[in-house]
Amino acid sequence: MTSPDIVHAAAVPTQQKRTSYRWVVMGLIFCVWAVACADRANFGIALPYMKKEYGISNTEAGLIVSLFSFAYGIVQIPVGLMYKRLSERTTGILFSVFMLLTSLFTGLMATTSSVFLLQAYRVGLGLSEGPLGIGCTNIINRWFPAEEKGTATGLWIAASKLGPLIVPTVCIVVIELWGWREIFYVFAIPGVFLAILWFFMVTNSPSQSRFCNEAERRYIMEEPAVASLAGSKPSQGAQVTAMPWLDAINRTRRVPRLETLRQVFTSWNILGVAIGYGCMIGITNVFMSWIPTYLVTVKGFASVKMGFLASAPFIGAVAGNMLGGVISDRLLGGRRKPMMMLGAAGSVVMLLLLIDAPDSAALLAGLLVVAGLMVGIGFAGYSAYPMGLATKSTYPAAFGIVNSVGQIGGACAPLAVGLLLDNYDWSAVFMYMVGTAALCLILLLSVVEPIAVTRNKE
User: Can you tell me the mean pLDDT for 222-230?
Assistant: First the structure.
């Protein structure tokens, strides 16, 4: 016969109030990624001043901008494999080290005396920042249950646009007070403090954290399979929200998890999404690096007004990133493709409208905000989509492929813009971006949507 004391002791864990430390972790991820993306975005504001000082052509400027993304993209797959194979404690330490290196190369940009050093430090920044993206998504995948991953990923992506959103204003103030070089000193400082905070506050999984109680760990870990074998039944207590009309367009399927590296590397679903991601990153990179030059040289805006307008696409993008993740989780039952396809289709429309953009600052700002909203609304899906296909073990490699191909594809855009501007005009630039958004939509139509299975809410 079981004593009442034993029964009471066994019941305590189930009655334990759940902590919410995962959202503290998410807050730190948000800050880290916002600062990291600000470190890459500040170059676009300094670019007109650099071109004047060093006599850089548009093509050379595009190459310098693209070198960051090439370096960032090249390290994605090796880093994804590294996160899979190294111990959890080691990966946590490496994350802080890479954050420190990101700050170091940001500060070094202020010391440049030649175009060669500009190129070298941009490569160093890309190689240092590359592991941070996979590190953040790896933590999200381990720290959040299936029904919260889209929201968490949307916040992470929103942070990537918050950096460029605040960059123009801060940069203009710094330039007015000191000069363009001091921009990089100012942006190097926050990353050092965040690297130290990360080291002491974030572990690679909830089971290692002293701030996360057992009830929260169970909530995070007790999730059903997101992608299951064709014809298999959902786990007990799970449900799939039926959306027949959307699933027909969306090509929703039950598919097996990608459990091996071979399956990951040969999956068209992963590769197709990765190439589409590259198309959309390319548009973001153009907004980040070339729009300030467009506003000054074509529209003739002074530096203060340019700073405001250069922020406009990222005001929309921040809203789009968060909306896309929340809608995907809460209204679409974990389906990632609809927001991704809406983003690509909406970008086509908005970029066509920007070809003959108005000279009015207010109207142009409105167009840029909506364009940023469309570009950003599907971004959370590109990171969350592999979570529905891969296991926790293979996810870093899967996202490494998506981010590697995406970043390398995106790296081509600033260089392409430089070449187009040296031979054509800005109409050709906007048509180029229209074409990449249309290609993204076609690629997304070719991949399947793994069925998301979520727990019943009590």
Answer: 42
238 phi, psi to nearest 5 deg: -105, 160
Integer-rounded Cα Rg, in Å, for the chain is 22
Query: In the numeric block, which tokens belong to residue 191?
Result: 């990353």
The alpha carbon dihedral of 357, 369, 327, 431 has a sign of positive
Amino acid at 124: G
pLDDT digits (tens, 9 = 90+) for 387-420: 888 887 788 788 888 888 888 888 888 889 989 9
Average pLDDT score over residue span 235-257: 70
Q: Residue 262: left if φ>0, alpha if ψ -120 to 50, beta else—which one?
A: alpha
- 269: which residues sit within 8 A by CB, 6+ positions away? 255, 389, 447, 448, 450
Strand partners, 252: 449
- Let me know the angle formed at the C-alpha of 81 by 120 and 212, rounded to the nearest 5 degrees: 105
Give the separation between CA 199 and CA 95, rounded to whole angstroms: 8
Phi, psi of 260, rounded to the nearest 5 degrees: -125, 160
Question: In 3D, which of 157, 220, 249 has the Cα closest to residue 449?
Answer: 249
Q: How many CB atoms lie within 10 A of CB 162?
A: 23
Give percent above pLDDT 90 in the chain. Answer: 28
Three-state secondary-structure class, residue 33 = helix
CA nearest to 440, candidates 273, 290, 318: 273
Q: Please write down the long-range contacts of 294-300, taking CB distance under 8 Å and 24 or more positions apart.
A: 294/426, 296/48, 297/48, 298/426, 299/357, 299/359, 299/364
Q: What are 213's two structure tokens?
A: 């109680």
Helix, strand and coil percent figures for the chain, each rounded to 5: 75, 0, 20
pLDDT average, residue stretch 195-214: 88
Structure confidence at residue 79 (pLDDT):
80
- Pick the closest to residue 319 from 167, 149, 168, 158 (CA basis): 158
The letter for the amino acid at 438 is A
pTM of the model: 0.69
Coil, helix or strand at residue 334: coil
- Residues 332 and 339: their CA atoms lie apart, in Å, by 9
Burial readout 353-378 (b: 16 or more C-beta within 10 A, e: otherwise)? ebeebeeebeebbebbbbbbbbbbbb
